Amino acid sequence: MTTLEFSYTLNQHSKSLKPFALRLTKDLDEANDLLQDTVLKAFTNRDKFSDGTNLKAWLYTIMKNTFITNYQRMVRRATFVDTTDNLHYINSGDTAVENGAPGEFALKDINKCIDRLDDVYQVPFMMYFKGWKYQEIAENLDLPIGTVKNRIHIARKILKDDLKVYKLD
Question: Which domain CATH number covers 61?
């Protein structure tokens, strides 16, 4: 294909590229810039185009890759990397350090509530909490499995009611 034929065909296909550029950029000016970059790259690399292949698909690929490259370049520019040795945060109000005190208070309250449970409920509940299976608890306590499940359910319900101040909405 001669340069003149390539230029003519490129001009014909560039009209169908504009909607694709608009879909990628979502901005008319950026779409025009992307279209211009695509046509320029296609024309300067016309020797890499093989006759008999789909020129339109080749142009769409150039446009998509140009858009991705420009987007990645923009993201890299917007990324700030601090290479200084001092690691002080200036005006960093969005950082917070928790000391774990609320978790300790909650854990103490949970343990108090468990200690207040009747042994009938506390023993199967704690065995289950430690990883025992229902069947193992039933065999160890010499109880029917339904009774074990019921007692664990009741213990959980009592604990839930006693600890409702910690409920997250």
Answer: 1.10.1740.10
Residue pair 77/85 in contact (Cβ under 8 Å)? The answer is no
Q: Which two tokens stand for residue 17?
A: 């590229």
* Whether the predicted model's global pTM rises above the 0.70 cut: no
Torsion of Cα atoms, 68 then 73 then 79 then 84, to 10°: 140
**How many independent structural domains does the chain possess?**
2
**Structural domain boundaries, residue 54:** 3-78
**61-93, pLDDT tens digit by residue?**
999 999 999 888 888 777 766 666 665 555 555
Q: Are residues 63 and 108 in the same domain?
A: no
Can you tell me which residue has the tokens 């340069």? 3
Handedness of CA 23, 29, 35, 41 (dihedral sign): negative
Does position 141 have pLDDT exceeding 90, yes or no?
yes
